Amino acid sequence: MNEDTLTALAGPAPAFTPSGRLAGRVCLITGGGSGIGRASALRFALEGAAAVVIGGRRSEEGESVAAQIRAAGSEGVFIATDVTSEESVVGLVSATISRFGRLDAAFNNAGFQERRAILADQGDATYVKVFDTNVRALFYCLRHEITAMLTNGGGAIVNNTSVSGVRNPNPGLSLYAASKAAAIALTRSAAMEYAPQGVRINSVAPGRVVTDMMLASGIADMGQVAASLPLRRMGRPEEVAAAVCWLLSAEASYVVGHVLCADGGFLAA
């Protein structure tokens, strides 16, 4: 995806002034090599994070983002990770603790969306990949991140869900929608269980955001999608990153079990 496509569908990058929201924090992000994950990792660094650890499968992309984080003044580390493997998730969290001594904030961003097709045309392999990536992997990440945070008195976690888990009026993404609804339920349940122990858990639910996954979703006319939204444009990854950063910060200290829909008014329309 190039900047021209991004600007045509979502407008220019929003201006913001860093305020140190994550100053001194050790942050972990899965799927941080591109799209919303990349934008969030860079925003964490700009907001003063002491370290940003990126877990993902694509080493070249991940190492590139880690280098940009270091250039922004934070410690940036990429660790090759398959979030559908519990052993790999344990390795990611353990490496973070081993190197930095603690884990303060985590953004569980890795996800997978099937190609659009009606339910009867979806196969078992697609079902397994969608739910392994969007639900089982989230369970692994939450379990081990929470354990690490409890050791140091608490922390904050944001899970990337989707407006499709709230309302999915478009045919062809039944598995994705069901998996994201499960991710929202998992977020809320975990939030209620661990809030008394100092771990705040929320989710961000993006709407129509210009990412490689969105562009590959099988929609023929992205311009029409953009024009149909109340803002008359799609979202940029940086706009979702801003919501994630706020949820992880102390400014959201009274926000627990919430689904923040960064959707340009999609659900209100």
| Arithmetic mean pLDDT | 93
Whole-number tally of structural domains: 1
Tally of helical runs = 9
- Ranges where pLDDT stays below 50 over 5 or more residues in a row are none
CATH architecture: 3-Layer(aba) Sandwich
Helix vs. strand class: alpha/beta
Cα gyration radius (Å): 17 Å
CATH homologous superfamily name?
A: NAD(P)-binding Rossmann-like Domain
Overview of this structure, please?
With 269 residues, this protein is α/β, with parallel strands linked by helices. It contains nine helices and seven strands. The chain has a single domain, classed as NAD(P)-binding Rossmann-like Domain (Rossmann fold, 3-Layer(aba) Sandwich), CATH 3.40.50.720. The protein has helices spanning 3-10, 35-46, 59-71, 86-100, 124-151, 174-194, 212-215, 222-228, 237-248; strands spanning 26-30, 51-56, 75-80, 105-108, 155-160, 199-206, 259-262. A seven-stranded parallel sheet has the order 3-2-1-4-5-6-7, sandwiched between helices. Strand 4 (105-108), helix 5 and strand 5 form a beta-alpha-beta unit. Helix 4 (86-100) packs parallel to helix 5 and helix 5 (124-151) runs parallel beside helix 6.
